[in-house]
Amino acid sequence: MSIANAGRVLFGRTPKLTRNLAQISSLKFYSSQMPKYEFVKTEKVGENQNIAVITLDRMKGLNLLNNTVINEVNDAVFKFDKDDSVSVLILTGSEKAFAAGADVKDMQVMDYSQAVKEEFLESWTAISKTRKPLIGAVNGYALGGGCELALMCDIIYAGEKAQFAQPEITIGTMPGAGGTQRLTRNMGLSKAMEMVLTGNYMNAVEAEKAGLVSKIFPPDQLLAETIKLAEKIASHSPLIISMAKKSVHIAYETTLKQGLQFERTSFYGTFATADRKEGMTAFVEKRAPKYINE
Ligand code: HXC
Predict the structure, then answer these.
(1) Over the stretch 172-209, which tens digit does the pLDDT of each residue have?
(2) Residues 6+ apart with CB under 8 A from 71
(3) Which residues of 210-246 are buried (b: 16+ CB within 10 A; e: fewer)?
């Protein structure tokens, strides 16, 4: 669904979203500041134009991944990461596929030494390093490297017809961009092992039940709902958002003791920021906070 249609879906729900619609429908495209990509579209949307939508667009919506696609995604993500006017990033695909995986025809002719020498997949996990919240809006297939790309997002919203799978085992290989690790951390040993060893598809309802996906929506409402979520997040301090995001991720990377210590230090750190002071003062004064990202 186009961003303009996403706006239409939201039309009339609330006065605020009605205002959003006007802005979403007359999108200010970002092309003047962003390079033209071959397989990726970028747009800034939302009432405050502070939500960046990065849309994969290759092979009639199948969105097969290769180094060029990944480099374009990385470039877009890190340009928005540095852009202070953007608070939240959304990564999405087509209604048919978020991404149907790596191009098997490219991999078929690759050998071990080439994979090692070229550090194949090194750049494929880069987006997980963005400081800003990255939300995956997944419609259709998220397979292999496409599933792994979704797993690098901080939150996944999915369309009711989304399908997740790691089918690498069916073509004589295994996940290489985080699937065995992130799936296991997200939904535990048994479900992750079943997916990785069988290549079986997991549908949207199962994925939500397993905790892989936060919420599911009719496909034509997915992007609109994801933008709504992004705008809610973007209404908070960007600085504190990045601190909180980092702290949640630390839960996956350290022991509980170290994670709790990191969280406490970060919490104390918020008391050194202008935005923490503004947030609490605004609450006491019964007004909306005005954050300055400091
Ligand atoms: C190369 C692919 C492809 C892929 C589809 N095609 N997926 N080519 N690599 N991953 C090609 C098909 O061969 C076909 O080409 C055309 O795209 C359309 O595909 P169809 O199968 O006709 O379409 P459809 O019936 O709609 O089925 C869509 C599909 C199916 C469910 C996505 O194509 C499929 O299962 N593809 C394989 C998906 C997969 O295994 N992904 C994981 C790859 S491994 P022609 O020439 O016949 O028109 C991976 C490892 C990553 O991602 C490593 C770490 C990052």
Answers:
(1) 999 999 999 999 999 999 999 999 999 999 999 999 99
(2) 123
(3) bebbeebbebebbbbbbbbbbbebbbbbbbbbbbbbe
Mean pLDDT over 92-97 rounds to 97
Helices (H), 83-221: 104-108, 112-117, 145-151, 179-187, 189-198, 204-210
Domains of the chain: total: 2
Q: Are residues 130 and 215 in the same domain?
A: yes
Q: Are residues 106 and 191 in the same domain?
A: yes
Q: Which residue, judged by its Cα, is nearest atom 35 of ligand 1? A: 100
CATH of the domain at 193: 3.90.226.10
pLDDT in tens, 4-29: 445 444 433 333 333 333 333 333 33
The response to whether residue 56 sits with its C-beta less than 6 Å from ligand 1 reads no
Check: pTM over 0.70? Answer yes or no: yes
Q: What is the pLDDT of residue 36?
A: 87
Is the C-beta atom of 145 inside 6 A of ligand 1?
yes
- Residues forming the active site: 102, 145, 148, 168
Residues 254 and 157 in one domain: no
Q: Given the DSSP bridges, would you call strands 40-45 and 28-29 parallel, antiparallel or unpaired? A: antiparallel
Tell me the pLDDT of the chain averaged across its residues: 90
- Side chain identity, residue 126: A
Q: What is the pLDDT of residues 138-164, one digit of tens each?
A: 999 999 999 999 999 999 999 999 999
Residue 165 forms part of a structural domain = yes
Do 101 and 66 belong together in one domain? yes
Whole domain around residue 195: which residue ranges? 2-234
